[in-house]
Amino acid sequence: MEYYQLNQANLIHYLQSLPEVQQKFSSFDHVEVREITDGNMNYAFIVTNKLDANQSVFVKQAPPYIKVLGEEWPLTRQRMVAEMNALHYQSSVCPEMVPKVYYQSEVLSVLIMQNLSNHAILRTELIQERCLPRLAEDLSTFLAETLFYSSDFALPSADKKAMVSKSSNQDMCKITEDFVFTYPFEHHEMNDYNPALSQSVIDSIQKNPNVRAHIAQMKYTFMNKPEALLHGDLHTSSVMVNVQQTFVIDPEFSFAGPMGFDIGALIANLYLNYFSHAHKSSAGSVDYSQWLLQTIDDLWYKFEGKFLSLWLEHEQSDQSAFMGKDLTGDSHQAFRHAFLKQLLSDTLGFAACEMIRRILGVAKVADFMQFEDQKLRATLETQALKMATTMLLNRQSYKNFDFISMSRF
Ligand SMILES: Nc1ncnc2c1ncn2[C@@H]1O[C@H](COP(=O)(O)OP(=O)(O)OP(=O)(O)O)[C@@H](O)[C@H]1O
Ligand SMILES: [Mg+2]
Predict the structure, then answer these.
(1) 66 in ligand 1 pocket by Cβ < 6 Å?
(2) What atom in ligand 1 is closest to the CA of residue 43?
(3) Are 353 and 392 in contact (CB under 8 A)?
(4) Which residues contact 343 (CB under 8 A, 6 or more apart)?
(5) Assessment of whether the complete model's pTM goes beyond 0.90
(6) pLDDT tier for residue 404 given thresholds of 50, 70 and 90
(7) Separation of alpha carbons 93 and 231, rounded Å
(8) Ligand 1: residue whose CA is nearest its atom 20
(9) SS3 121
(10) Mean pLDDT, residues 40-67 taken together
(11) Does 236 sit in the ligand 1 pocket, CB within 6 Å?
(12) Average pLDDT, the chain
């Protein structure tokens, strides 16, 4: 079989031919196909039996180009292999937070998986000030489990190296290198500035040699620190939630990289959402802003606790696992402390890069773009840029997320 594009007309015929999908449907006579258009890169469909909504699947296909830009913007279908590998790995360590894969085809670059349409995109929920009591608990679990179990602390040396080579995702990494770490910091034609954002604020980042040097350090870390198998694009539109459950979707940028990149991406997008509420005066918005800060704080705190427990558990089962035997009883502890301190610093640095690129770069976030008033948006953007710059430059000196006194920004 060769690659061909799935569409509304041929999708049912294709699904009917797959035993793994046949099992999900009692009949295809009343099946409905709905194209999902909120993604940019790939085609996505929800297929449902109109007589029984429980019989449904989500279908995602990567074309050899960026869907919304068309064929003149080629992009290798390798991204779908990265997504398949990442989903497979993530569901092996954290199955309750990853959509179940029913079928996959590398030839067609297709994934057929659990339909999550009873869940909503986290970013949308946050914009609407929805209460999500499980968020920090669930996301810290996802981060701790996926990052720990693919690290050198859990994997034998040879398995870790095999994972690193298998997870190479060079075209998607290049997109991140350009659009997260390079273009937003220079005068690039792809950048998209709010016309109301003051030039001096933009210059305070782009023309500040100190900031530029720190951003370059983060880019270098991104490119040279294969610590764990990352999701690679863990922003708040890569999470689907309802009050009971949290799922992480869309790991097409997955590769072996620095742990702080995943944690930082999530935290950055939560902070951007924070700035979109913190200027409002209603009691509901004030409470929601506080809940967001608490959630960020909890996310790191819980992540740290869970990552450490996994590490301790692993050490107890295999004393010489990473460092060899601890002869004084405190060597392991000293290393764990130093490792987590560096991880917090990386997390803050990557969070800063993500916040800045969402404001100066081309890929905007709805949390800010919902405001048509450009002046208001510029005020929020300026606050977020100041905070990101402070976080970036001082990232080595923080111990947790308590430090951030928002009134300073
Ligand atoms: N398992 C699922 N069940 C139901 N809907 C889903 C599922 N996974 C994703 N979606 C919906 O489909 C949309 C597109 O999915 P996804 O983000 O994986 O595609 P994408 O093309 O990679 O998007 P992007 O351009 O944002 O990277 C999501 O925004 C979400 O609304
Ligand atoms: Mg995607």
Answers:
(1) no
(2) 21
(3) yes
(4) 259, 260, 263
(5) yes
(6) low
(7) 13
(8) 39
(9) strand
(10) 97
(11) no
(12) 96
| Cβ 83 under 6 angstroms from ligand 1 | no
Rounded Cα distance between 7 and 143, Å, is 35
Cα-to-centroid distance, 250 and ligand 1 (Å): 6
- pLDDT value at 31 more than 70: yes
What is the distance in A from the centroid of ligand 1 to the CA of 222? 25
pLDDT tens column, 280-305: 999 999 999 999 999 999 999 999 99
Q: How far is the CA of 365 from the centre of ligand 2 (A)?
A: 14
Find the angle CA(352)-CA(358)-CA(360) to the nearest 5 degrees: 95
pLDDT at position 319 = 60
pLDDT digits (tens, 9 = 90+) for 144-172: 999 999 999 999 999 999 999 999 999 99
Neighbours of ion ligand 2 (CB under 5 A): 41, 250, 252
Task: Identify which ligand lies nearest to the alpha carbon of 38.
Answer: 1
Mean pLDDT of 51-65: 97
Q: What is the dihedral of CA 153, 150, 221, 202, to 10 degrees?
A: -130
Q: Given ligand 1 and candidates 6, 35, 36, which is best to mutate, with the most ligand atoms within 8 Å of its CB? A: 36
The token duo for 185 is 């910091």
User: Which fold does the domain 120-408 belong to in CATH?
Assistant: Aminoglycoside 3'-phosphotransferase; Chain: A, domain 2 (3.90.1200)
Residue keyed to tokens 């072996």: 256
Report which protein residue has its CA nearest ligand 1's atom 8: 249
The DSSP element (H or E) to which 56 belongs, if any, is strand 52-61
pLDDT at residue 316 in the model = 85
Centre of ligand 2 from the C-alpha of residue 203, in Å = 31
Enumerate the domain spans of the chain: 11-114, 120-408
Task: Name the amino acid, one letter, at 155.
Answer: L
Q: Which ligand 1 atom minimizes the distance to the CA of 117?
A: 4
315: confidence class by pLDDT, cuts 50, 70, 90: confident
Amino acid in the structure at residue 90:
Q
How close is the Cα of 50 to the center of ligand 1, in Å?
21
Q: Kindly tell me the burial class for residue 329, based on how many C-beta atoms sit within 10 Å of its own C-beta (0-12, 13-18, 19 or more).
A: exposed
CATH 3.30.2310.20 fits 11-114, yes or no: no
Predicted confidence band at 329 (pLDDT cuts at 50, 70, 90)?
confident
> Counting Cβ atoms within 10 Å, is residue 43 exposed (0-12), middle (13-18) or buried (19+)?
buried
Residue 63 pLDDT > 90: yes
pLDDT at 92: 98
